[in-house]
Specification:
- This protein has 418 residues and is an alpha/beta fold.
- It has a domain at 38-181: 3-Layer(aba) Sandwich (Rossmann fold).
- It has 14 helices and twelve strands.
- The protein has helices spanning 9-24, 28-34, 83-99, 120-134, 153-167, 187-206, 222-233, 256-266, 280-284, 323-331, 339-342, 345-359, 365-389, 396-415; strands at residues 39-48, 54-65, 71-77, 106-111, 143-147, 214-218, 237-243, 246-249, 276-278, 290-293, 312-314, 335-337.
- It is globular, with a radius of gyration of 20 Å.
- The structure holds nicotinamide-adenine-dinucleotide.
- Nicotinamide-adenine-dinucleotide binds at residues 147-150, 191, 218-224, 242-244, 280, 294-296, 316-318, 343, 346.
């Protein structure tokens, strides 16, 4: 396939899959199965508005591959969450779960909607309707949703409640629930925390001391804000963060707790005291040790990859770097820790939540965090070792995909799918 920024998100993920397939010397049969999705459901979701009118939106649930266990993946509410994006995100989940060794397949859900235009009551009605419409293909041993962009523990509570009305109370139908409904301690912070563990490992590899190393983070939602807070606690200097309204910069280091309270009060990081405004574009090109895109996909493209000045890119967001940009970053010796590794902390603790629910026990937070740390550091080291052992794996992304794909193929062959 011709490399270009115009590739759809699913084509881009499959470009990386094809590279892995070459490294793993996969058969044509395996490539045929794994480059497509198992099941795609599109549902119409009429939303009753507060004024009595009805707005029609469309939702999706895509199950990419279930060879290694029940399908698993978040639900996103966003105007760009169309079938191509949801397919791409579902396939990334297949590779992510395999890479960190949690016994799940890959899925994703989405509703193509701008949730900022809906009231809380409208969001609840939309979530409940969508849950009803996908309820026949989800289940605690079939497909387990979780939060993603613009969904959260409250959204999961509505899904749990709506599913329970039809099938009886089922704690493990979703992960990322509030603790009061069986959520895991540490789930909220897990994706950001996992990013910080792999950032530590990556900096060691490139010979930069984490203490005082500078970090710029795009996105200040669940993932970005936790990553910023935990990085600052660990001694990093977080010099810039941003959200959909714009970014802020403080070369001496941001006071992250102060930025968090400013964002809570005003709705945005912009205008936090003691900071200079910068745009989201400028943030990506800042002089820093680590750049962490933690918002949207496809933000580093052929047009700006050459201007990235970070030594390490941690892909906290899903598919933030297009394949062309990935090539440019590799040529410029930028170490990119790929999404399927960097942001796998969320699904790892989602797995812990599901295990705790199935056993009807709760682990304490320190226990969750240390299990997460072990898995993230181990996954990073496995990717790095693969990359140094096999010349064909030129980047950490190629190593991560090759490892993940080989694990999925093994399970699929054992089941007799291939
Ligand atoms: P979120 O909705 O909590 O936060 C998203 C953040 O991105 C917000 O700060 C928002 O203002 C910002 N944003 C939105 N549009 C933007 C734009 N155009 N420019 C700059 N910033 C923009 O979402 P999240 O859960 O933090 O997810 C962020 C990314 O991390 C997504 O790519 C998601 O798929 C990925 N991810 C999330 C999890 C998780 O556990 N939540 C797990 C793995 C991967």
């Amino acid at each position: 396939m011709e490399l270009s920024d115009d590739m759809t998100p699913f084509e881009a993920v499959n470009y990386f899959f094809d590279r892995a397939a070459n490294i793993d010397r996969l058969s044509d049969n395996a490539c045929g199965v794994l480059s497509g999705t198992y099941r795609e459901l599109r549902v119409q979701v009429p939303v009753r508005r507060d004024d009595g009118s009805v707005t029609v939106v469309y939702g999706y649930r895509v199950q990419h591959n279930g060879a290694r266990g029940p399908y698993k993946g978040g639900i996103r509410y966003h105007p760009t969450a169309d079938i191509e994006e949801v397919r791409a995100l579902a396939s990334l989940m297949t590779w992510k779960t395999a890479l960190v060794g949690v016994p799940f397949g890959g899925a994703k859900g989405g509703i193509q909607v701008d949730p900022s235009q809906l009231s809380k009551a409208e969001l609840e009605r939309m979530t409940r309707r969508y849950t009803d419409q996908i309820s026949h293909i989800i289940g605690p041993s079939r497909d387990i949703p979780a939060p993603d962009m613009n969904t959260n523990a409250q959204t999961m509570s509505w899904i749990l409640d709506q599913y329970g009305r039809k099938y009886g109370h089922t704690t493990s139908i979703v992960t990322g629930k509030p603790v009061a409904l069986g959520g895991s301690y540490g789930r909220d912070a897990a994706t950001g925390r996992g990013c910080v563990f792999v950032m530590d490992e990556a900096l060691q590899d490139v010979g930069i001391d984490p203490d005082g190393a500078t970090v710029a983070i795009q996105g200040f939602g669940n993932v970005g804000s936790w990553a910023a807070r935990l990085a600052a606690d660990a001694g990093y200097r977080v010099i810039a963060v941003s959200d959909v309204e714009g970014g802020i910069h403080a070369p001496g280091g941001l006071d992250v707790p102060a930025v968090m309270s400013h964002a809570r009060e005003s709705g945005s990081v912009v205008g936090a005291p003691g900071t200079e405004p910068i745009s989201n574009h400028e943030l990506l090109e800042l002089e820093c040790d680590v750049l962490m895109p933690a918002a949207l996909g496809e933000v580093i493209t052929s047009t700006n990859a050459d201007r990235v000045r970070a030594r390490v890119v941690i892909e906290a967001a899903n598919h933030p770097v297009t394949p062309v940009a990935d090539q440019i970053l590799a040529d410029n010796q930028v170490l990119v820790v790929p999404d399927i590794l960097a942001n796998a902390g969320g699904v790892t603790v989602s797995y812990f939540e599901w295990v705790q629910n199935n056993q009807e026990i709760a682990w304490d937070e320190a226990d969750v965090n240390s299990r997460l740390e072990n898995r993230m550091r181990k996954a990073y080291q496995e990717c790095r070792d693969f990359m140094t052992t096999y010349d064909e794996a030129r980047t950490m992304r190629e190593a991560a995909f090759a490892l993940a794909v080989s694990r999925v193929v093994e399970a699929a062959e054992l089941r007799g799918y291939l």
